[in-house]
Amino acid sequence: MSMILKKVCGMLVILLFSYEVGISDSYIPTNYHKYESTVYNEIEDHFPELLTPPIIAALIEHENCINLKWNSCWNPKTNFKTKWDNGLPREEGAGMAMLTRAWRSNGLLRFDTLTNLKMKYPKELKEMTWSNIYDRPDLQIRAMVLLWKSNYQKFSNKGLDYWDVVAMSDAAYNGGYSGVYKDTQICMLKKGCNHKIWFDNVETTCSKSKKVLYGTRSACDINRHHVVDVLENNFIKYIQIWDDNGYSGMVE
After folding, report:
1. For residue 120, what are the domain limits?
2. pLDDT digit string, tens, across residues 165-188
């Protein structure tokens, strides 16, 4: 049994206890029920081979929910926007998927996740633009599923355990595939580090900036917390709610 699977199984015991005593981490946001079937259908249509479908719901909660009981949680209208000191836009994260585009301080585009994703999946995302992104929750979820699929396929071809593929796919969703790939290469050169295992191995070789970005957290802190939050905090409760509502939380 992989390290991450042991962690997930342990979290399942904690979750079952939390339902009994009412711990808030088990709370399912109200807006989730509006989009549960959409998440299910988009996975079925575009990534049916995903063995753990509730991971997409867990990812949406992380990306979209600052507070589980706020209306912005599981809300396609939610956005994250920052500006440079000169007033020019710096970054925009859109909707439940928090698809992101960012600009340099001189106004030049630095990267655009949506445009790059449309180049890879032109048929599936042909209707999606930055003009309509906040009005199409179905396309937001589809884009999220396809981006996860893209990362998953790259890591699953490297002979990794399933849960390590999932962990690295999640890290790549937040910080890009190239960043995680670079971390695996650093791990290969580090004594005692297994580049095919995420937790306590590749996890420890973050090559992202250590400079504080938001609050007290650096890009490295944000990326590593992303994996922990999605896989260990959010995923388990969505397995439970999917099973309760008649969907398959885990594919045998």
Report:
1. 3-244
2. 999 999 999 999 999 999 999 999
- Asked if residue 93 belongs to a domain, the reply is yes
249 within a domain of the structure (yes/no): no
Angle CA 195–97–9, to nearest 5: 50
State how many domains the chain has: 1
Q: What are 208-218's pLDDT values in tens digits?
A: 988 877 778 89
Instruction: State the average pLDDT over residues 3-12.
Output: 44
| Pairwise CA distance, residues 165 & 6, whole Å | 15
Angle separating helix axes 162-175 and 177-188, nearest 10 degrees: 120
| CATH number of the structural domain spanning residue 138 | 1.10.530.10
Residue 251 falls inside a structural domain: no
What's the rounded Cα separation, in Å, for the pair 237 and 34?
A: 17
Structure tokens, 76: 């396609």
Residue 8, pLDDT > 80, answer no
Angle at the Cα of 96 (from 183 to 31), degrees rounded to 5? 135
